[in-house]
Amino acid sequence: MARTGRRRLKARPRAGFLWRTFRGVLDGFLRLAWWTGLRLGVLAVVALAVTTGFYVARLPPLEALLDGREGGSVTLVDAAGEVFAWRGEQHGVTRTAAVSPHLVNAIIATEDRRFYWHFGVDVRGTLRAALVNLRAGQTVQGGSSLTQQAAKLVWFDNTRTIERKLKEIPAALALEWKF
Asked: Which of 7, 6, 60, 5 is nearest to 174 (CA)?
């Protein structure tokens, strides 16, 4: 008897009712999670853009941000907040073009090694510091970029809270955008 070259396929067993039901629920859940995540992501981007615009609008000119003290580099303040003395020499404003590039690179390497590659917020450094702090159970490491440190000096106090860290993000983006 000659073969025709066609194979006969075996019938696959049909999936059971439970599997079909589970698969339908899983597909529905994944679809819901996708759309919810997408909408929350868009909402987060819009909120970040609005708050960054708010900080850009409140940002004074660069000259107003420079420290213009004539009395010294260290200011001594009493309990009432009044300045009563200055110590150290104040040599005026120093621009990066006036100092050695090695000094600039040393400061950047010490404080923010990915300075030239991020947009004002070092996400890797922030996540690393958050993980270390979570493991330690307290704040032991900071993850701020140089721009975030500048934003803290312009707008915020020195408290270490998650709220301030979240506020630093659009403020740092505003500094990067404007300057």
From this structure: 60
Instruction: Provide the token pair at 85.
Output: 């003395």
Q: For tokens 């500094």, name the residue.
A: 175
Q: Is the Cα torsion angle 19, 23, 24, 26 positive or negative in sign? A: positive
Three-state secondary structure readout of 17-36:
HHHHHHHHHHHHHHHHHHHH
Tokens of 34: 């996708």
Residue 55 · residue 148 · CB < 8 Å: no
Tokens of 92: 């005026």
Average pLDDT, the chain: 82
- Residue 143 contacts residue 128 (beta carbons within 8 Å): yes
State the angle between helix axes of 162-178 and 146-155 in degrees (0 to 180), rounded to the nearest 10.
100
Q: pTM for the complete prediction?
A: 0.65
Q: What angle do CA 102, 126, 101 make, to 5 degrees?
A: 10
Q: Which residue, 56, 46, 61, is CA-closest to 173?
A: 56
- Each residue's pLDDT tens digit, 164-178: 888 889 999 999 998
CB 132 within 8 A of CB 140: yes
Q: Which residues of 31-70 are buried (b: 16+ CB within 10 A; e: fewer)?
A: eeeeeeeeeeeeeeeeeeeebbeebeeebeeeeeeeeeee
β-partners of residue 77 are 83
